[in-house]
Amino acid sequence: MKKTSTGNALAAVLLLSASFPASAALNVVATTSSMGVLVKAVGGDAVRLTVLAPPDRDVHVLQARPNMMVALRNAGLLVAVGAELEVGWLPAALKGAGNGGVLPGSPGYFEAAAQVPLLEGGRAADRAQGDVHPMGNPHVYMDPERMAQVAAALAERLATLDPAGAAGYRSGAAAFRKAVDARVPAWMAKAAGAGSIVAFHKDLVYLAALLGVAVTGYVEPLPGIPPTAAHLSDPTTRLKGKKGVILYTDFQPGKGPEFLSRNLGWPQVRLPLEPPVGATAEEYLKLIDRWVDAVASGK
Amino acid sequence: MKTRIRVAGALALAFAFAFAVPAFGQEEAPAPGPAPTPDAQAAPSAPEAPGKPGKPEDPSPEKPGPIEPTGLVPKSFPLFGSSGQVTSGTSFNPAISVIPDLVYYRDSVQGGAFGIVEGADGFHGAHPSHEDEHGGLAEGFNLRETEIAFTASVDPYFDAAALFAASEEGFETEEVWVGTRRLPAGLKLKAGKFLSGFGYVNQQHPHQWDFVDQNLAWELLLGDHGLNEKGLQLTWLPKLPFYLQLGAELLQGENEGIASYVGPENVGPVPVDDGETPGPDRVLSRKAGPRLVTGFVKISPDLGYDAALQLGASYARSAMHQELHDEDEDGIVDEAFEGTVDLYGLDAVFKLDSARPRGAGDLVVQAEYLLREKSLGLVGTPDSARFRQDGLYVQAVYGLAPRWQVAARYDAAGMTNSVREGGESEGFGTSKRVSGALTWNPTEFSRIRAQYTRGDFFSEGVKKTFDQLYLQLQISLGAHGVHSF
What we know:
The structure holds 2 protein chains of 2 kinds.
Chain A: H1 2-19, E1 26-30, H2 33-43, E2 47-51, H3 66-73, E3 77-80, H4 90-97, E4 109-111, H5 144-161, H6 166-191, E5 196-199, H7 205-211, E6 215-218, H8 229-239, E7 244-249, H9 255-264, E8 268-271, H10 281-296
Parallel strand pairs in A: 1-2, 1-3, 3-4, 5-6, 5-7, 7-8
Helix pairs in contact in A: 2-5, 2-6, 3-4, 5-6, 6-10, 8-9
Chain B: H1 2-20, H2 22-25, E1 95-99, E2 101-107, H3 113-118, E3 140-143, E4 146-153, E5 158-167, E6 170-180, E7 187-195, H4 216-222, E8 228-236, E9 243-251, E10 266-269, E11 281-283, E12 292-300, E13 307-325, E14 335-352, E15 363-378, E16 384-401, E17 404-421, E18 424-427, E19 431-443, E20 446-459, E21 462-475, E22 477-478
Antiparallel strand pairs in B: 1-4, 1-22, 2-3, 2-21, 4-5, 5-6, 6-7, 7-8, 8-9, 9-12, 10-11, 12-13, 13-14, 14-15, 15-16, 16-17, 17-18, 17-19, 19-20, 20-21
């Protein structure tokens, strides 16, 4: 009797599992909403997008959730930022998903950091230096130029997974490239002559490099280590009398930036690091516009 | 019997799949363009092929604009030829982490609190072979087991892990397993020694616990090491819009609480009073492994980004559980029991992820209930007995401030606690504890914790209470640990 009910339950699961829509669109999972922007820009309507990390969280310290495993279980392609940014939760979510097709090394695994040259690589793997990424800084999504390169690589990957849609993917990547190129001159012009940046974390390195603006200090003494009053006195004395701006994001505490702003007389600007989930390329570039305006406010 | 053979057959078939299926995978054309990083989990490797994407470039923030495509820059060779060797060096090493655990301990009963816990009424059968070998801490400084973990992908088909617990007494194998990477349809097969998927907390190593000690339900019903067995595990995540995991395990059956195995030992005749003639020798049964089967279901509705809930139900059946009782410790076995054990488990975990920095505002509430039923025969007699015990815990961990957690736990064992022998039935009192802990995590790699516990136990029918104080320092060296939900 018992066995029969177990059998029935199993049959029900099998039936549900079979009836779950296996539509033609490719299931693509993006770890962050900025990676989602690329998936949407390149994949368009040919892909169905799921974003794992909410845009207002620190991706360094996120935890794996069962619904991440469901998304990865049903995914044909995983698009990650990479360079160990998601190391705390993505391996756990992949482990729970049981989908060999999207494991690193498979055609279904794509990481942005592996497609472009990284800054700050080759440094000592010593955690006394904080939460370091010895292979290079992973925050490539703050550089639209690199994002355009990643988009081109993503188009080729999608084309191998779905050859029928290849032309659409390539034109999507080309359109993204065009939109970026159209904005770069205005960004450079705005940022020209801007003072330096004091950032909370090393997440603005690529944006600063693109704009040719120096990062002269960090609010946190080491990556992932919260600031202390003693540490904050250093940039205060070092940068007194110079021009610049203090930049930070949603999930970074405002106390340190506010303290520095008061003592240096610099503006402090807090902006989202990631666009909303499901954002278009236009929305992503508008967010970069806001960051460029913030950098320019340090003149 | 038949069922088990069938299960074994199914598992063997799945194993065969692990080899057969990847053959299809090999036909997949490698993606053109830059290759993805081989393994995001692999330890960072220093040497990189020139021109490989992801190769660190000179940190020159002055150089804006698009960067020269990699792979096109010719490598410069030394004039008289290199005497070097093109080698991967140690890059293939597995990810390694070492987790030492230092505890300062005091209690209100001259260090006797662990003895009271282990002697809780109705649970004395849990430690048949070795008394007081583990578990207890000395008053003062203790170096608990240092976990040493190695993990890596074996090849495209398998992942593997080897985890050891090194203590001053020796080196124990906690887990050594090989798992499939590429089974189809959401199936995964694991072979080796591993922590069973039964329940929730069982899959956590001691350094992942939210308290210094294990909860009473698991500690008293399944012992210090939990359900940690050799065997096979098959899990299945069906293609559904919500999370449903089904799992089954075929295990050797050596757990002291539900599958203690002595083997076909002669324990002599039933002890008799002076002058009486002893009866025939009592010989325990032989039963080849695997002797333990488990099954579990975990279900989790999609609650979005901020919350997650997982509910689980588990069942285990041991085909052979043997206990030798020597109450007066005279070296003569007074009672020898053997029979079957059923174990039932229910678990629930709820997590709330706040947008505040470094864990502030995060909440985790978890609870488990375990019920064990032993149906044992008294060897050498026609008598039999049924032992029924249960245990539960409820705990909550809250992110007080960035990097600070406060936790509270209530755990109890023996709410249902009885022995039914022949027509007689004997009940025991419920033993319980209340604990509070304050944890500071300077980074993800270090942890300092203070814990206070108040125990309220029944031991030999007498109520005993104690207070415990723990101070813990735990660090993690090496690769970034991966913690499942």
